[in-house]
Amino acid sequence: MQIVILKDAAAVAEYGAQIFIDQINRKSDSVLGLATGSTPVALYQELIKANQANKVSFKQVTSFNLDEYLGLDGDHAQSYRFFMNEQLFNHVDIDKNNTFVPPGDAQNPITACKMYENKISQSGGVDVQLLGIGRNGHIGFNEPSSSLASRTRVKTLTKETVEDNARFFAEGEFQPHLSITMGIGTILEAKKVVLLATGENKADAIRDMCEGAVSAVCPASALQFHQDAVVVIDEAAASKLVNAELYKHIESENQKLQQYLAELPN
Ligand SMILES: N[C@@H]1[C@@H](O)[C@H](O)[C@@H](COP(=O)(O)O)O[C@@H]1O
Known about the structure:
- The structure is a single chain.
- This protein is an alpha/beta fold.
- It has one domain (about 1-260): Rossmann fold (3-Layer(aba) Sandwich), CATH 3.40.50.
- The chain is about 35% helix and about 15% strand.
- The protein has helices at about 10-25, 40-50, 80-85, 110-120, 160-165, 185-190, 205-210, 245-265; strands at about 1-5, 30-35, 60-65, 65-70, 100, 130, 155, 180, 190-195, 230-235.
- The protein is globular, with a radius of gyration of 18 Å.
- The two termini are about 30 Å apart.
- The structure holds 2-amino-2-deoxy-6-O-phosphono-alpha-D-glucopyranose.
């Protein structure tokens, strides 16, 4: 795990966005795994800015979102499809036909999950997967106790997650307690994974993910098994890490190495 600790949320968004921009500029038909929640919004803003400044083009990009509420169709203002359109897709040159979000309105959600998995495989697999993290360590909607080998499936949300996400729903409005989410096994197959977290309320989850045992109690800890997982966090989210100084030291050494490699003659 590469753990990058930056001063604030704006720096986290910029750093994360640059990974995606570099990826697309290296491979124009990249397959991106995308995430919702409030944390990625600033990263999406950076991508929109870069697209509008012609620094990156999404014309040949394909995307797969992590998850969706079961029971909401894509026109529902709280659906993750709607969120992605509003926060990113409507503002960049991506072909929306190449953007996939699990169908929250599927008549048969079990079949829909299998089809979603097949679609990811047919696309060649995800090149870079963006992730946020829930306060309880969930990724996508893989709540504690999720199998670390799980595939895309229907998951029940915990009371904590329903409460955390209630802020987006109007009082009395139907709020789903079920979701369709990529599994942890699905996420681990992405060639690269970038997890962003900001703010003190994520500090426990970040500590458990990076320094705790690999366990279904903290689903994000499965990323310890990923060969190329980058955790980009601000000082507040890093505040409970025992080895924060070590990670900063490694990062500064890593940057010197990158600089050295960049200056090597071809
Ligand atoms: N399914 C999403 C997750 O993918 C996201 O990581 C989490 C944290 O969201 P936020 O970034 O708003 O804290 O919220 C939801 O539960």
